[in-house]
Amino acid sequence: MNKKRSGASVMLGLLGMIKSLLFPMFLAILMGSLGHLAAIFITVLGGEGLIYVLQGENGKTLPYMIAGLMIFAVFRGILRYAEQACNHYIAFRLLARIRSKVFAALSRLAPAKLDQTEKGNLISILTSDVELLEVFYAHTISPIAIAVITSVFMSFYIGRSSWILGALAMMFYLIVGVLIPYINGRSGREQGMIYRDNFGKLNTTVLDNLYGLDEILQYHQSEERLKQMAKKSEELEKISLSLKKKENWQRIATDITILSAGLAMTLVSSYLYSRGRIEFRDAILAIIAMMSSFGPTAALSALSNNLNQTLASGDRVLDLLEEEPIVEDILEGKEYRQGDISFDGVSFSYPEKEKEILSGFSKVFEKNKIYGIFGKSGCGKSTLLKLIQRYYEPSKGLIKIQDSSVNKIKTEELRKHITYMTQETFLFQDTIENNIKIAKLNATREEVEAAAKKASLHDFVSSLPKGYDTPLSELGDSVSGGERQRIGIARAFLRGSNVLLLDEPTSNLDSLNEGIILRSLWKERKNKSILLVSHRKSTMSMAKEMITME
Ligand SMILES: Nc1ncnc2c1ncn2[C@@H]1O[C@H](COP(=O)(O)OP(=O)(O)OP(=O)(O)O)[C@@H](O)[C@H]1O
Ligand SMILES: [Mg+2]
Q1: Among the listed residues 101, 117, 132, the one whose alpha carbon sits nearest the alpha carbon of residue 196
Q2: In this predicted model, what pLDDT tens digit does every residue of 460-477 receive, in sequence order?
Q3: Is residue 329 part of a domain?
Q4: Mutate which of 382, 420, 506 to test ligand 1's pocket (most atoms within 8 Å of Cβ)?
Q5: How much distance in Å is there from the Cα of 548 to the middle of ligand 1?
Q6: Which of 16, 137, 513, 550 has the largest CB neighbor count within 10 A?
Q7: Ligand 1, atom 10: nearest CA belongs to which residue?
Q8: Which amino acid residue places its CA nearest to atom 29 of ligand 1?
Q9: Listed residue (28, 237, 232, 289) closest to 140, CA to CA
């Protein structure tokens, strides 16, 4: 995440994703170049017509010229449309592809990544950063190619009568299309980056405040929080303002250069005409062609304002795509076999953290037994459960299941056979039934109900007017802590795995409900290895053994 790419390498990285779309891209460039040339030659042809009239030459060519003008005008419209259609086709095909790539990257990096990152920042990568790349694919790549093609063509056209005029035109195209965007881009790049980063941070703060609304009100923090948000928005605004200022300077510099180009062309061509080196007609046409042909290069110059942000977004997306997972999934490994889970001298600390959570921890959790894990808050109970599933790798020692190190078992298999009920059950915006069914998508209603009964959830759900079809609201505020937990337990029962890692499954429940759930677990214990983390001794009564962690 820390290395910085140059603008060019971000562009190359982004272009690397477009290989299969080269043909529509080629079409977009072709249409765009022809379209711009048609627009330029409407003016040039008009000027030429005027010269014919002024010089009183025969009127026969004039109707042809008018017809030519009309054809150019119609073509201009059609070509422009075709160019945009191609560009948007490419951009949207690509956005869909990038989104799925980003999600694939996230699932490769999960769960460790999601354990650690600011969620708001990830959200802005997934939404606005990816969205901004549309600008790159639809409005950056082909304009560059089009500007190059039209500028070279026009330099040759203007240089037909004298190479000096051609070289002069080329020089001005380079100033507008390369020099100004380069200077502008360089000075705004840093700020573009900061803008995108701060935008992500603001997202995090907004999300935080939204989820923490209850606490904010409870502790009378609304004013303080509002101030913080206002400050962050102000900072963002400041950067945005300074970027806008740069944009103005870029516009002014471009306009002045274009006017100077007209002036220079007038002076030089007048001089060449006075020396008899070119004809009057060529001098006028060179001036008209120069003045009417800055469209593509000026567009390139304006592009450099957004380019900073586009590149910053691209950089963040590429960062995520290229990020190495903390733990690589084992794709080719042993099959999972049910057995004892053993820790052999395991030491572990979180990446970039000094504190050692486990040091030389050894323990055998025998197959098909229930174990209670007890210990003060922060001692590493949840970490222990995560290590079994290989969310992280220990720095020392081995964790084995049925004598195979978890580092050798196919990771997907491993996690498929283990059900982990986390301390916080996440509820989706969906019905209760579907929330339970995420543990087993093809479960029947009967299976869902049976699981809910074991989790002491059925009576509650039956009391709701829509029963299992009741939708849960987004923040889950309408669901009590205990109900949420029981949905989590119902999921675990529905999944039916042979290994159950339950992280404080009943901490929010009264003893009646807890009793029902513990009895269900007791009934199901055959062929199941259960690790039960709890702060309460009552929960542990059925455990074969209780391990106290330091
Ligand atoms: N992703 C993480 N990155 C860095 N440190 C972490 C991470 N997750 C947990 N920790 C730290 O590791 C220590 C152990 O955390 P863990 O969640 O395993 O504790 P616990 O025993 O489950 O506590 P509790 O009873 O409160 O749930 C804590 O000090 C915690 O702050
Ligand atoms: Mg915990």
Answers
A1: 132
A2: 999 988 899 998 875 556
A3: no
A4: 382
A5: 16
A6: 137
A7: 350
A8: 378
A9: 28
